[in-house]
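Supplementary Note 3. Input sequence used for the single-chain structure prediction.
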Amino acid sequence: MASEQMAEGSGSPAPDPTARPLDAIDRDILQLLLKDGRASIRSVAEQVHVSRANAYARINRLIEDRVIRGFGARVNHERAGQGASAYITLKIVQNTWRTVREQLRRLPEASHIALVSGDFDVLILVHTEDNRALRELVLTKLQSIPEVLSTRTLLVFEEEDLEASAPDP
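The predicted structure, written as discrete structure tokens, is reproduced below.
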């Protein structure tokens, strides 16, 4: 499958920081892969009207330029036993983002971490088994990080992944 072949290329050396501009075919390829990351090279080539070699080269360039950051499964967290989701905001000690980020990356419950501007410094999306596990995550793990000054938890009642817009099977 294309995703298996393409994922192998992601271990290449760091590309030039100035990514090459995308043309209409590149954008079409991205849209196709967003809908189905497992699409074959042949299928992608046919849908964007280029040769397989051209599609393969373009996809590899998108990976090398870090436009495509990887391939993965879209998970229904509730069905996967993670019925509680929340956005958690953190206020942190100034200039400790890198330290805090490394600690947050180790949390298996975290699915997205962002440094943001505004009334708080960090926004984390987490998925836990239930509210008890969520409480434990906030009170035991997050608030024990020395650089974290305060937290605020926003429960997610319903969510929809807009980037991967293909319907759930």
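DSSP finds six helices and four strands in the chain. Confidence is low (pLDDT under 50) at residues 1-13.
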